[in-house]
């Protein structure tokens, strides 16, 4: 293994510094590392503590030089690769350093490597950073989420923060130390930009996690955080604004719903991030009204604030009857129907646009059969492999097979058929449970009363209704991973996101043979249930009803052939996460937009 | 009332508990009618179980109707049974209907009162939160002032 110097910078904060240094010395299993402690004139006993620790090098500065000059003093005192380590970090893994070093040397052009950072509560705060435009207010992602095993892959990042960062010696030799125009903040992003300009890539090591008490020195020393941050931001903009702006090579306007909780908002958020990463300058508009509220997602909020520009192509993603705001140079409707066809008034509206995108072949056939005259292309929906993969934490029930059924209460779901089929098929002795994850239009007892009216038998396997629990969407993968089989009994044709997401997590699925999700049914990982086309509440339109008998058979089959289904689902998961990632979908979109141009 | 997010591990823990001991709001009513009830559980978010859901249930059930549809499960003599029931109801209407009217009135008043109380509770909760916030802000301002005076060296 290559030798590494760990530079720990401190400015007061005896307790956190002690925890940091001792956890490094006690836990780190790397065979060839040394600690270089740089103290920025602490007055609270930190300096004395550092002197008392055997086997570490201590550099004592006479005054507080700040984060940048302090770290540079450490870098100058070493001739190996370095890890910059804040004194408010704590090691929670023994082989964290080996893992980061392995990523750094997995490719010649990887120069800087960060890791996952969790806060004192164990929530994941950092897996990389990005620079939203036009606010240029650097952000970490995911911000503050429960650690469910997201971002555990090694992946390229725009930048990483230097609370814990591995920098190769050859990068230090070529790029130099940290830029001393900064006192603190933005110097890490600046350094990552420099490394990238010099031909190196910045990576996150997804298998290394470090605990980080954010801004401990700033808080302990009652430093002016916002003033320092603002000054550093101005310095950063003076150096890098043009370079940040220049990463956008294409332009697009995206109209959709964004602040809601529906499929449109969720798909939009993922696609907008992917398009931004791919260098598309997206202006965000809305399908109706003016959504002025500030959005929690800084990157998307900035897209909303970029102003209007009619001289670029527009994608209008929403219900087919709400696309009247098409006023771009080329207008694309990105739509799907929940029925067997597009209603005549929708077709009329869609024919006014230049081109139509739909998420799958089923929808394309429905659009053509409904009389759409425009070019109809398939642009599939995708998955986010960082949140939907077999490594996401599940919470299965010991010794019990869990069927999970997401149900939006209303006529669009055949929940009675499922309840009847499940309770008729499985007796109390069999170790199975049906978990109905119910979203109801208003909190109330309507569901309980409707179920009571069914008069279900009393000696059957248990059914648990999880009512409107408001589980954050980033934990959807967790929910899928907690089940042994996902059961979809929706009558609607589209958009088929749940089947895609569950399979990406390696969880087998039972679904109707009709509609958007039929594209993913293979008979092993995803089993089909025969359906009949029945009239929907929308006049002239049909949707599907699953067969009670076939649903019973499918439930039994899923239970009896669980091993084979799961194995196949895991196989399929790997393919979906590669071929259907949102980045992949964004690349396809860009290809088409380039053709249009 | 604002919904708070729940983590999946908490939900699954509740599911596990529910499988061991099924629980529904209507369980007691079901038990009155049947000796055993179906193996069902309903997990509501904590904020809604006691108030919103129960209140909703009260609103749905306060109204009682003595003129409900009469039926019979018996084949063959079913029509005769229904005719008998209708005759009995007509004969007793003079006695039953005033009592039903009184119960309906009472139910309506109780339901309305419960809704008023719930609204008042929400209003009071909001005011308490505001007062707590104001009190915390005041304490913070006092602490900052004390800190400033200590830094100036004129503190105690």
Percent range for β-strand residues of chain B: under 5%
Mean pLDDT of chain B: 83
What's the alpha carbon Rg of chain A, rounded to whole Å?
27 Å
Order of helices and strands of chain B: HHEHH
CATH architecture of the largest domain in chain A: Alpha-Beta Complex
Largest sheet of chain A: 11 strands, mixed
The portion of residues assigned to helices of chain A is 25-40%
Q: Can you walk me through this structure?
A:
The complex is a heterodimer of chains A (597) and B (156). Chain A has 597 residues and is α/β, with parallel strands linked by helices. Chain A has 3 domains: 4-243, Spore Coat Polysaccharide Biosynthesis Protein SpsA, Chain A (Alpha-Beta Complex); 250-382 and 582-596, Rossmann fold; 401-579, Glycogen Phosphorylase B (Rossmann fold, 3-Layer(aba) Sandwich), CATH 3.40.50.2000. In chain A, 34% of the residues lie in helices and 24% in strands. In chain A, strands 1, 2, 3, 4, 5, 6, 7, 8, 9, 10 and 11 form an 11-stranded mixed β-sheet that branches. Chain B is mainly alpha-helical and 156 residues long. Chain B folds into 2 domains: 1-44, no CATH class; 62-152. The two termini of chain B are 46 Å apart. The model of chain B has no long low-confidence stretch (mean pLDDT 83). Classes of the chains: A alpha/beta (597), B mainly alpha (156). Chains A and B meet through helix 14 and strand 20 of A and helix 1, strand 1 and helix 3 of B. Strand 20 (463-467) of chain A pairs parallel with strand 1 (40-43) of chain B, so a sheet runs across the interface.
């Amino acid at each position: 293994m290559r030798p590494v110097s760990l530079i720990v910078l401190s400015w007061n904060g005896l307790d956190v510094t002690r925890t940091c240094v001792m956890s490094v010395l006690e836990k780190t299993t790397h065979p060839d590392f040394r600690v270089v402690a740089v103290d920025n004139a602490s007055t609270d006993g930190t300096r004395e503590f550092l002197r008392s620790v055997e086997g570490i090098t201590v550099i004592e500065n006479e005054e507080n030089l700040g984060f940048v000059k302090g770290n540079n003093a450490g870098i100058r005192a070493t001739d190996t690769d370095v890890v910059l380590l804040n004194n408010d970090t704590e090691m929670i893994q023994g082989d964290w350093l080996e893992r980061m070093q392995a990523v750094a040397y997995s490719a010649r052009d990887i120069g800087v490597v960060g890791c996952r950072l969790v806060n004192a509560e164990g929530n994941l705060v950092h897996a990389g950073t990005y620079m939203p435009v036009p606010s240029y207010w650097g952000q970490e992602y995911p911000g503050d989420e429960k650690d469910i095993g997201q971002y555990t892959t090694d992946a390229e990042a725009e930048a990483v923060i230097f609370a814990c960062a591995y920098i190769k010696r050859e990068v230090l030799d070529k790029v130099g130390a940290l830029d001393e125009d900064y006192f603190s903040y933005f110097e890490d992003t600046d350094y990552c930009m420099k490394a990238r300009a010099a031909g190196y890539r910045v990576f996150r090591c997804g298998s290394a996690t470090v605990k980080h008490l954010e801004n401990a020195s700033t808080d302990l020393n009652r430093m002016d955080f916002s003033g320092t941050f603002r000054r550093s931001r101005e310095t950063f903009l003076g150096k890098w604004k043009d370079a940040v702006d220049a990463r956008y090579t294409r332009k697009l306007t995206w109209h959709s719903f964004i602040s809601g909780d529906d499929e449109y908002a969720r798909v939009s958020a993922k696609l907008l991030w992917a398009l931004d990463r791919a260098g598309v300058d997206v202006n965000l508009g809305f399908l109706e009204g003016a959504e002025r509220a500030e959005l929690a997602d800084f990157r998307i909020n900035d897209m909303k604030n970029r102003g209007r520009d009619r001289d670029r192509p527009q994608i209008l993603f929403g219900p087919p009857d709400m696309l009247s705001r098409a006023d771009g140079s080329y207008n694309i409707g990105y739509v799907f129907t929940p029925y067997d066809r597009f209603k005549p008034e929708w077709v009329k509206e869609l024919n006014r646009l230049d081109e139509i995108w739909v998420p799958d072949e089923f929808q394309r056939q429905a659009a053509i059969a409904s009389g759409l005259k425009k070019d109809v292309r398939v642009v599939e929906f995708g998955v986010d492999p960082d949140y939907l993969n077999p490594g996401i934490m599940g919470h299965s029930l010991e010794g019990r097979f869990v069927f999970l059924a997401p149900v939006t209460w209303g006529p669009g779901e055949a929940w009675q058929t499922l309840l009847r089929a499940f309770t008729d098929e499985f007796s109390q002795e069999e170790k199975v449970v049906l978990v109905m994850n119910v979203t109801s239009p208003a909190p109330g007892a309507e569901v309980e009363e409707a179920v009571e009216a069914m008069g279900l038998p009393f000696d059957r396997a248990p059914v648990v209704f999880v009512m409107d629990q408001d589980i954050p969407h980033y934990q959807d993968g967790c929910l899928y991973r907690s089940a042994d089989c996902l059961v979809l009994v929706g009558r609607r044709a589209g958009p088929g996101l749940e089947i895609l997401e569950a399979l990406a997590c390696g969880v087998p699925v039972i679904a109707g043979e009709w509609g958007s999700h039929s594209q993913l049914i293979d008979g092993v990982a995803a089993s089909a249930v025969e359906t009949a086309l029945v009239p929907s509440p929308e006049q002239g339109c049909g949707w599907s009803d699953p067969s009670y008998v076939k649903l019973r058979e499918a439930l039994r089959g899923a239970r009896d052939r669980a091993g084979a289904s799961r194995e196949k689902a895991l196989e399929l998961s790997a393919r979906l996460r590669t071929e259907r990632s949102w980045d992949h979908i964004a690349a396809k979109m860009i290809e088409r937009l380039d053709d249009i141009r | 009332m604002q919904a708070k997010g729940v983590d999946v591990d908490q939900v699954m823990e509740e599911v596990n508990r529910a499988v061991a001991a099924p629980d529904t709001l209507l369980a007691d009513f079901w038990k009155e009618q049947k000796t055993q009830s179906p193996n069902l559980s309903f997990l509501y978010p904590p904020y809604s179980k006691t108030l919103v859901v129960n209140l909703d249930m009260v609103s749905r059930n306060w109204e009682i109707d003595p003129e409900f549809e009469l039926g019979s499960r018996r084949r063959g003599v079913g029509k005769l049974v229904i005719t008998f029931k209708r005759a009995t109801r007509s004969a007793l209407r003079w006695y039953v209907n005033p009592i039903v009217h009184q119960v309906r009135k009472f139910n309506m008043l109780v339901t309305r009162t419960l809704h008023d109380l719930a609204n008042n509770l929400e209003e009071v909760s909001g005011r308490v939160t505001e007062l707590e916030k104001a009190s915390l802000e005041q304490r913070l301002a006092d602490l900052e002032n004390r800190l400033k005076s200590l830094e100036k060296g004129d503190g105690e």
